[in-house]
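Retry 2 of 3 after timeout on previous attempt. Resubmitting structure tokens to design endpoint.
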């Protein structure tokens, strides 16, 4: 087989993957077409944005890409509310798990308080820091399961 690797638009890639995943024998409840979840928290009554969260749902997993609260508005429940809403929307779309990455200098304890566990730790990234891959099971068959022991990938 002869082939070349080149560039494509995101729209072209999405059309291809949506069409081709349908040809693979997967359980019918697994949806591979990505669905973006983009949330904002606005302060009342002036509607100033004080927090945002965004991620993607794909293959039954909600992957949180970013959660950020405006400096000075942190530790007031904004991040927790955004995370709960992200989880709710992922559950609505049939997700069985959530996944995210956070650095050793970021919000690991925050996510642990919300039920996430460390699935892996990637040590010595380009800044010499550790990045944690964290997961949270969502469906009843996973409730009560313990998080696998964390390990470090070097």
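Retry 2 succeeded. Sequence:
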């Amino acid at each position: 087989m002869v082939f070349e690797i080149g560039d494509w638009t995101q729209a072209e890639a999405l059309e291809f993957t949506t069409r081709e995943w349908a040809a693979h024998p997967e359980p019918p409840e697994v949806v591979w077409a990505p669905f973006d979840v983009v949330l904002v928290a606005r302060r009342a009554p002036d509607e100033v944005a004080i927090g945002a969260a965004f991620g993607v749902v794909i293959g039954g997993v909600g992957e949180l890409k970013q959660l950020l609260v405006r400096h000075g508005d942190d530790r007031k429940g904004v991040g927790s509310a955004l995370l709960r809403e992200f989880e709710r929307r992922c559950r609505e779309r049939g997700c069985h798990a959530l996944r995210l990455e956070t650095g050793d200098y970021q919000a690991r304890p925050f996510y642990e308080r919300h039920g996430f566990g460390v699935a892996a730790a990637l040590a010595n990234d380009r800044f010499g820091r550790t990045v944690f891959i964290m997961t949270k099971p969502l469906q009843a068959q996973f409730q009560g399961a313990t998080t696998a022991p964390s390990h470090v990938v070097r």
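Attempt log closed. The beta strands are 35-43, 48-58, 61-69, 97-103, 117-122, 131-137, 152-153.
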